[in-house]
Amino acid sequence: MARSRSLPASGTLTSDEWCARLQGTLESFDEAGGHRTLSALFDSVPLDVALADVVLPYLHGVGSRWETGDIGVAQEHFASSVIRTRLSLTLHHEMRSSGPLAVLACMPGEKHEFGLMAMALVLSRLGWRTCYLGADTPTADVALAVGSLGPDAVVLTSHRSTAFTAKGALLRRMSEQTTVYVAGPGATDDPREVGGARHLPGDPVTGARTVDGQWRAVADLVASDPMTDAVAGGSGDALVMASPLASTGDGSPEAG
């Protein structure tokens, strides 16, 4: 869990105090109280800060308490269900009709989707349209969405590195159509292990900002020199490689 600190525009409450409020309601099966706490949090704290400093650390704590036996399966499922519902409703409310488009999905067998949901929400706040496919999505179906929608970016997550290596050929084909990012504990910065996709290190909020920053750098480059798009053949990944914010080996932006 992130170190407790006072959050901007949240009065005197620290991140730990917000987490304690969620724990006190959700882990005692108080759905209405949990929603009131989440409403107060999202009303008083910027969404990206709320996700990075409260919601995701709280969910990590729920998992840890379940593993140690401090809470039961029912409490873990209940808390996760309420937060998943709230984030889904927020994501629906944030839907946009214009802007760059991102397709987001968990790799086959991957059930952990809260980080991906957080990334989709932050991208929406940054002006993106999102096609959120959710947990345990077959990569063939992701490829179908990519072919149908022509997104500006694809984000795939997994806790297992084998999920990426097993689908390396398909990831490589998708990378020829758009910029594909991999994230989560299973992702690495070795292109041979992730089918040539680009690694997003760090937390989901940072990852969303990286995707947005790299796309905008490319858009600015094309706007200033339209021939760049023609030289790159329209490939989003080629444009990222040509941009002044091309990713370094560890996935962080690097000034050209």
Features:
alpha/beta, 256 residues, single chain, disordered C terminus, Rossmann fold, five-stranded parallel sheet, Cobalamin-bd_sf
The residue ranges in which pLDDT falls below 50 over 5 or more consecutive positions are: 230-256
In CATH terms, the superfamily of the largest domain is Cobalamin-binding domain
Count of individual domains: 2
The total count of strands amounts to: 5
Protein architecture, described:
By secondary structure, the protein is of the alpha/beta class. The protein folds into 2 domains: 15-93, Methionine synthase domain (Methyltransferase, Methionine Synthase (B12-binding Domains), Chain A, domain 1), CATH 1.10.1240.10; 101-242, 3-Layer(aba) Sandwich (Rossmann fold), CATH 3.40.50. 54% of the residues lie in helices and 9% in strands. The chain is built from 11 helices and 5 strands. It has helices at 15-26, 31-44, 47-67, 73-93, 114-125, 139-149, 161-165, 168-175, 204-224, 227-232, 236-242; strands at residues 101-106, 129-134, 153-157, 179-183, 198-199. The protein has a 5-stranded parallel beta sheet, sandwiched between helices. The longest helix has 21 residues, at 47-67. It is globular and about 55 Å long. Residues 99-229 form the B12-binding domain. GO terms for molecular function: cobalamin binding; metal ion binding.
